[in-house]
User: Fold this.
Amino acid sequence: MLNSDLYRGRVKLVSEFMKRFNGEEKNPYIDPTATEIDKINLCRLFDADFILKNRADIEPKAFQFVDSVLNNNVKINYEDPDWFAKASCVATFKGKEITFDIYLTVEQRGKDMYKWVISDVKGEIFNLKPSRESEKIMLLPNEHESNFMRLNSITSEKDDYITLYSSRTSSVDRLTVFNTLIYYGYLNIEYVLDIEYTFLQVPGYAFTIKEFERESTNSGWLIESWQQMDVNEKNFLREELYHGRYKELLTKDTTKQEQKPTKSERNNEACSMTITFVSLIDNYVANKDKATLDSINKAAKGRYTFIIADEITNQLAKFFNSKAKKSYKLDTFMNWLGSAKSPITSISIDNVKPFEHEFVRPEYSKGYTLISGDLSTDGDLQINEQVVFFIYENQIAGIKLISDCF
Assistant:
């Protein structure tokens, strides 16, 4: 049976740890009348077992760390570049079991979207180096006279001599070695043995959290360790994680924040995109040229499904000899419009404007810029419908009948 008291006290998710660390959420067992609640709340985020093992020495250091957090009003967020994950992996290489670490950071993709990416790997297998230091000349100075016939020695001699053939100015990138081994199927990750997250946001410190599984309210994602780290040490670690581009990353993020368009600007741009998109489709219907089709695909990148009208979906099902669907991908729709049997000779849109309504579905109103318009077609199939275009990350993300948006 689930112990509700233990469940409430447990820090169940990394995001929950962030909220408690930031003071947005408090440990449920703190006395609300207590003084220094923020300090107590932070102290409850430490692995208590570790501190109690040597309380006299460790507890004062923990308080110093907490004071630095509170005095500097430190907040940690998912999108920060100053935290990273370390996943300790068990893998097989040439039939043998090995272990290595993968370092991951958060990378921005589009507006307000992020993803985890592999920034580095560490393990003996990725350190290409000769078995001994040597000044041996692997390729003689007159190799060009024999058409570099000795190049086959790279593969016929010992594998770990390979770096001796390279320029002394070249550097070995562990991540490139990792990608190559994975790509050609030599390295297989079996499972993740352990994972931890390290944060660099606290002035003078770095701290690491891990998940503790135990029957206690002091469980879940907790601070396992913390250490003093000056600015220079942090910058070295950051530059290593981001391959020398950490400062450039901060500059780009600052520029993006400063240049964030207003709602009115986003709406105007979305209206213009909608008009251009329909105009491109109309041009393709008339000329069926590849250049126009490429522009259409670039505007929507073919990632999304489109619904324009029930009659169109019925026509598509008939054309492709398949059961009618509620939606079709853009390339399916364009293949139909580009065929000689398409019953549409032109398509246009009028009365284009931002679409806002208090009863629009929440999943449609959040994240998208909505643009409405009167869509019409000419030819054997004539349609006149009020539709809504969904704009996301400067792409046409889909089209729905206005009646389907509620």
About this structure: The chain has 14 helices and twelve strands.
